[in-house]
Amino acid sequence: MRTYFVCPAPPCPNGKLHLGHVGGVYLLADMFTRFQRMAGHRAYYITGADEHGTYTLVKARKLGQPVSDVAQKHIHEILQCLRAVQITPDAFVRTSSEIHKENALAIFRELQEAGYVDVRDGVQLYCEHCDEFVADSLAVGTCPACDATTDSNLCENCGLAVQHDTLRDARHTTCGSTLGLRPIKQAVFDMPRLAQVLDKAIGQST
Ligand SMILES: [Zn+2]
Ligand SMILES: [Zn+2]
After folding, report:
1. Stretch 129-135: mean pLDDT, rounded?
2. Regarding the domain with residue range 3-111, which homologous superfamily does it belong to in the CATH classification?
3. Counting ligands in written order, which one lies closest to the CA of residue 158?
């Protein structure tokens, strides 16, 4: 008997699930889980809500409501959508929950102690007017590669992951002010080294 943890990516609670979400990810994961159970294996369906994406923050600002209220409302809708197609996750983890914070920190610390985390100097866009660091999706400007209008997350036109110090004519979507850069500390995973370890772990698990 094998044990499977089936973990479709947790949706951001900024709206209901549409058919593309359900058909593209959650239904396939459900079919796989059910199939493995029918074949006599243990399978757990684990998903949740990613409340730390900026999509929920953007929606909350648009509505003028607290982020936690907006997240709560959409999590309720997401669970209703899953139930409507008879998908019942074994665990539904909210990223704002204490257990998630504990687990995420434990993984981070273990990686850091093993030397897989590099803390480097970096920069992040900053709005002097609002006196705050600006999240990727709240900065708008011009893509350095294709000149399209983009946020500082991912250029929808050319697919470039836009770094904060390369976004041209950066403005804050909240207030329209021109943005500057401020120094920050960034924790970066040593992916070339981690990839080897992960490859080995995945190889051993099959
Ligand atoms: Zn601003
Ligand atoms: Zn582009």
Report:
1. 94
2. HUPs (3.40.50.620)
3. 2
CA-nearest of 73, 65, 66, 64 to 14 is 73
Per the CB < 8 A criterion, the answer to whether 47 and 10 are in contact is: yes
Calculate Rg over the CA atoms of the chain: 20
- Ligand closest in space to the Cα of 155: 2
Taking domain 117-189, whether its CATH number is 1.10.3720.10 is answered by no
Q: What is the pLDDT of residues 22-42, one digit of tens each?
A: 888 999 999 999 999 999 999
Over 90: is that where the pLDDT of 55 sits?
no
Instruction: Using alpha carbons only, give the angle 47, 105, 136 rounded to the nearest 5 degrees.
Output: 70
For residue 141, the cross-strand partners are 150
Output the CA 167–ligand 2 centroid distance in Å: 10
Domain positions in the chain are 3-111, 117-189
| Confidence label for 20 from pLDDT (cuts 50, 70 and 90) | confident
- Ligand nearest the Cα of residue 168 is 2
Q: What pTM does this model have?
A: 0.77
* Residue 16 and residue 70 in contact, taking contact as beta carbons nearer than 8 Å: no
Q: How far is the CA of 36 from the centre of ligand 2 (A)?
A: 42
Distance (Å) from CA 168 to ligand 2 centroid? 11
Largest CA distance in the chain: 60
Residue 206 confidence (pLDDT) above 70: no
